[in-house]
Write a structure and sequence with these properties.
Layout: E1 12-16, E2 22-28, E3 31-34, H1 42-55, H2 67-70, H3 78-86, H4 99-114, E4 116-118, E5 121-124, H5 135-143, H6 148-167, H7 195-208, H8 211-225, H9 230-233, E6 252-255, E7 268-271, H10 274-282, H11 303-316, H12 324-337, H13 342-349, H14 354-373
Antiparallel strand pairs: 1-2, 2-3, 4-5, 6-7
Helix pairs in contact: 3-4, 5-6, 7-8, 8-10, 8-12, 12-14, 13-14
C-alpha cells in the first residue's frame, strides 16, 4: 500500500480541477506543467526537477535582487549560498560577469538547488546544509547533465560558487575541485563548416537575389572574416569601422568584447579584410543605422534571434548541420591549417587562454604531420616475394 507524502518545494502548486480532484503542477512565470507521478516518490522528484528546468526563468521577468531565493532557503544551506553569490560585486565575482554569462550561470545553479537530494529523497539540494556538501553530491549534480559540454559548464558553475564560498568563509573547502566532467560524449559540439559548405551557401543565396538572401551573405562574411563572438557581431556597426574620411569605412574594426566587458574594457582591433569590406560596400543599401545586420523590422538582432534566423538560412541552402557557431569554428580551422599560431588565433578570436587555440593548432599539426608521413607506410602489395634461400 503506497502512502502519499506531501512535500513543500518551491514552484509547487496544488490546484483542484473542475471536478474537485487535486492536481499538482510546477508553476513559474505564469506557466505550469502538471506532475502526474505520486508525490513523495523518486519518480515525482525527477518529474518535478525536469518541469522546473523546462519552465525556466526569463531574465526580463525574473524578480530583482534576491527576492526569489531569499524566501526559499534557510541561512547556511546550499541555496542560501547561491543567494549570497548572486549578489557578489567584487572583481571576478558574479556581478562582474557579462549579462549572458550571469543568466546562464544563475539558471544552471538555480536548477541545481531544485534537484532532489537522492532518488529516494525528494528534498531539494538547496536545503542541504553547507557542512554536508560533498564531492559525491556535486558529482551527482554534474552527471545529471547530458553531454560533456553541458557537464563541463555545470562543473565550472558549481566550482565558481564553491570557490566563492571558501573565499568568504562559508565553506572549508571546494568539493568540486577534483571532480572531472566525465567522459567525452560521441558528439563533437557544433558541426564545423567545410569549404564546400561555404561555397554551397554562397551559391544558393547568390541565386535568390532577395533582400533576405543578401543579408544572409553579409552575415556569413561577418561570421567568417571578423573573428567575433555572435554577441559582438550582432552589435557591430559603422561606428566600429570609422575611417579617416567621414562616411567611409576604415581599415580596422574596433570594439570591446561583451564577454569581458565587466572585467576590463580592452579594445579588440582587427583589420577589415578586403573580402569583408567589399561585402559591406556591395550590400550598403541593406545595412542598419547602428548595426550592420537588422531584422525585417529594422531592429538589431538579439544573439539568440540571429542564431535561429541564420540557421533557417542554412536549412534553405540545404545545409541542415550548419550553424553560426560552426562557421566561426571553420574560420579557426582554416587559419590554423594555413599556419596561424596559438597567439595569432587568440588575437583573431578574442580568446584569453591558449587552450581553445590549442584545439585548432593541434588538429592542424596532426593533419600536416600525417600528410607528410603516411607515405612512409610503403610496400608493393602485388609483387611476389622470393622464397627464402635454404642454402
Amino acid at each position: 500500500m503506497s502512502i502519499a507524502i506531501e512535500v513543500d518545494l518551491p514552484y509547487l502548486s496544488r490546484e483542484p480541477d473542475r471536478h474537485g480532484n487535486g492536481r499538482i503542477y510546477a508553476r513559474r512565470h505564469g506557466k505550469r506543467i502538471r506532475i502526474r507521478e505520486q508525490e513523495g516518490t523518486p519518480a515525482f522528484a525527477k518529474a518535478y526537477t525536469a518541469a522546473v528546468e523546462k519552465l525556466g526563468a526569463p531574465p526580463s521577468k525574473r524578480p530583482k535582487g534576491n527576492a526569489l531565493l531569499s524566501r526559499a532557503w534557510e541561512k547556511g544551506t546550499f541555496g542560501w549560498l547561491g543567494v549570497q553569490y548572486f549578489a557578489s560585486k567584487g572583481e571576478d565575482e558574479f556581478l562582474s560577469l557579462d549579462a549572458e554569462s550571469q543568466r546562464a550561470r544563475k539558471n544552471d545553479l538555480e536548477a541545481c538547488f531544485l534537484i532532489a537530494h537522492q532518488d529516494d529523497d525528494p528534498d531539494p539540494m538547496g536545503n542541504c546544509p553547507l557542512k554536508h556538501l560533498s564531492a559525491k553530491k556535486m558529482k551527482r549534480l554534474i552527471e545529471m547533465k547530458d553531454g560533456r559540454g553541458a557537464r563541463t559548464n555545470r562543473r565550472k558553475h558549481l566550482s565558481a560558487l564553491c570557490s566563492w564560498g571558501v573565499e568568504n568563509d562559508h565553506l572549508s573547502g571546494n568539493p568540486v575541485r577534483d571532480i572531472k566532467a566525465g567522459k567525452a560524449s560521441k558528439g563533437a559540439g557544433y558541426y564545423t563548416w567545410l569549404i564546400p559548405d561555404v561555397q554551397q551557401f554562397v551559391a544558393y543565396h547568390s541565386e535568390q537575389k532577395t533582400r533576405r538572401s543578401r543579408k544572409a551573405l553579409l552575415a556569413l562574411g561577418l561570421l567568417l572574416f571578423a573573428g567575433m563572438r555572435r554577441q559582438d557581431m550582432v552589435s557591430l556597426g559603422k561606428q566600429h569601422c570609422r575611417g579617416a574620411v567621414p562616411g567611409q569605412l576604415g581599415e580596422w574594426i574596433r570594439y570591446i568584447p561583451k564577454k569581458t566587458l565587466k572585467k576590463r574594457r580592452t579594445v579588440s582591433q582587427k583589420p577589415l579584410v578586403p573580402v569583408l569590406k567589399a561585402a559591406l560596400v556591395e550590400h550598403a543599401d541593406i545595412l542598419g543605422d547602428l548595426t550592420f545586420l537588422v531584422t525585417d523590422y529594422g531592429k538589431p538582432f538579439s544573439e539568440a534571434g540571429f542564431g535561429n534566423w541564420f540557421r533557417d538560412r542554412c536549412d534553405e541552402a540545404g545545409l541542415p548541420l550548419c550553424s553560426a557557431h560552426g562557421l566561426k569554428k571553420a574560420g579557426a580551422t582554416i587559419a590554423a591549417e594555413n599556419g596561424a599560431t596559438d597567439r595569432q588565433l587568440m588575437a583573431m578570436f578574442d580568446w584569453d587562454s591558449p587552450r581553445m587555440a590549442w584545439v585548432y593548432t593541434k588538429a592542424a599539426e596532426q593533419k600536416r604531420l600525417a600528410g607528410e608521413a603516411m607515405f612512409l607506410i610503403s610496400m608493393d602489395l602485388h609483387r611476389e616475394s622470393s622464397a627464402p634461400n635454404d642454402g
